[in-house]
Write a structure and sequence with these properties.
five-stranded mixed beta sheet; Rossmann fold; 2 domains; EC 5.3.1.9; SIS_PGI_2; binds 5-phosphoarabinonic acid; alpha/beta; SIS_PGI_1; single chain
């Protein structure tokens, strides 16, 4: 399903030398015996997910699709990045279907929040507030404004029907509010952290509201589970990728740039950055995750990749079959001198750009490239790909003895901000 190719990465170490460590880390993930073992519920989630809640999500999504024009996803970090990545990758950036999905609760920008509140005026709105802790300030701030807007616009009773909460099953401020107001609620499992939660109600409800087949998405997740449960580095591309990253860092590459050639996968890069950065970047260790969309960013970052400091490697996701294609037309006058492409598929042009870039970056620029090939941008492929990266980050972090499932460093800015804001 996923083809992983490390032959353009100048790797000097031998994969077999890592097999023993990989077996050990694999056992830690599977037996829940490694660091952060309270948060490895995602490993078995493809088999254990709550089927009753899943059915409820589908039903609720169908109701929302009928009864709203704008669906506001109010969350930050793992509470929105996965849904956004899926919706954009699968539906594209300008989908024709309703409702329109708007992301909020991920910023303190007064301009952005005010503009969203103005934009939704006069449109039928439904809000999905998502927070595992239930106390995240960006989300809580936006939600208070949205709650007041909804109650003013629809009255308290109708507003309560139009607000859905996804949070902890028992604790937290958001859970208390949801219970008191009688909101429909969905659960973030205790043992799945935010950035691993896109395959739970956190991601599934918004994704289903966008009209995407979440059964198909879960089939992709399950296929990845089946394919990636053998620790053998000759059979497991996720673990092979995890090891290749370690080899590249040993060779002095401290930055990884995730590259796609599809604009609608730009948010996928944002999701991946959170997953990898927050999981691995601690104790002075880790690879800095960066992302880019080519060929767009070849006209900005391309220069650095080609000739700048040799700190990075690229991990390139290639999509075999585009969601749509066009044939380039011919033009009698050919004033733009583009007739050499007449009759060619645009996807073929994109692929040739990728091929030429690979050659330029690897052969001329000596930038190591890891290649990941996915068949298409379907819900199935999305499900497969996220689980591939979950397994990879679990493995690659355990290989450097890091707990991938906490984020203690995030607290430092919060502490300072709360002091400045005068929070008791
Ligand atoms: O991965 C994580 O756990 C975090 O990045 C969270 O997703 C993020 O901080 C949002 O937290 P919460 O869902 O508790 O509001």
């Amino acid at each position: 399903m996923i083809r992983f190719d490390e032959t353009h990465a100048f790797l000097k170490e031998d994969f077999d030398a890592y097999q023993e460590a990989v077996n050990r880390c694999h056992a830690m993930l599977m037996n829940k015996s490694g660091k952060g073992n309270d948060y490895v519920g995602w490993v078995e989630w493809p088999n254990t997910y709550d089927k009753e809640e899943f059915a409820r999500i589908k039903k609720r999504a169908a109701w929302i699709r009928e009864n709203c024009d704008v669906f506001l996803v109010c969350g930050i970090g793992g509470s929105y990045l996965g849904a956004r990545a899926a919706i954009e990758m699968i539906n594209g950036l300008y989908p024709s279907q309703k409702p329109e999905i708007i992301f909020i609760g991920n910023t303190f920008s007064s301009t952005y929040i005010a503009q969203v509140l103005r934009y939704i005026e006069g449109k039928r709105a439904v809000v999905n507030v998502i927070s595992k802790s239930g106390t995240t300030t960006e989300t809580a701030l936006a939600f208070r404004l949205l709650k007041q807007y909804m109650e003013k616009t629809y009255g308290k009773e109708e507003a309560a029907k139009r607000i859905v909460a996804t949070t902890d099953h028992a604790k937290g401020t958001l859970k208390q509010i949801a219970d008191r107001e009688g909101y429909d609620t969905y659960t973030i499992p205790d043992d799945i952290g935010g950035r691993f939660s896109v395959m739970t109600a956190v991601g599934l409800l918004p994704i289903a509201v966008a009209g995407i087949d979440i059964d198909e998405l879960m089939t992709g997740v399950q296929a990845a589970y089946a394919d990636l449960s053998d620790p053998d580095l000759h059979h497991n591309p996720a673990y092979r990728y995890a090891v290749a990253r370690r080899m590249l860092q040993n060779a002095g590459k401290d930055v990884e740039m995730l590259v796609t050639y599809e604009l609608q996968m730009t948010s996928f890069g944002e999701w991946w950055k959170q997953l990898f950065g927050e999981s691995e970047g601690k104790e002075g260790k880790g690879i800095l995750p960066h992302s880019a969309t080519f060929s767009t960013d070849l006209h900005s970052l391309g220069q650095f990749v080609q000739e700048g400091k040799k700190v990075l490697f690229e991990t390139v996701i290639n999509v075999s079959k585009p969601s749509e294609d066009l044939i380039f037309p011919s033009d009698e006058e050919n004033m733009d001198q583009m007739n050499y492409l007449s009759g060619k598929n645009l996807h073929w042009v994109n692929q040739m750009a990728a091929k030429g870039t690979l050659e330029a970056h690897v052969e001329t620029g000596k930038v190591p490239n890891l290649l990941i090939e996915i068949p298409d941008m379907s819900a199935h492929s999305f499900g497969y790909l996220i689980y591939f990266f979950f397994r990879a980050i679990g493995m690659t972090s355990y290989l450097i003895d890091v707990n991938p499932f906490n984020q203690p460093g995030v607290e430092v800015y919060k502490k300072n901000m709360f002091r400045l804001l005068g929070k008791q």
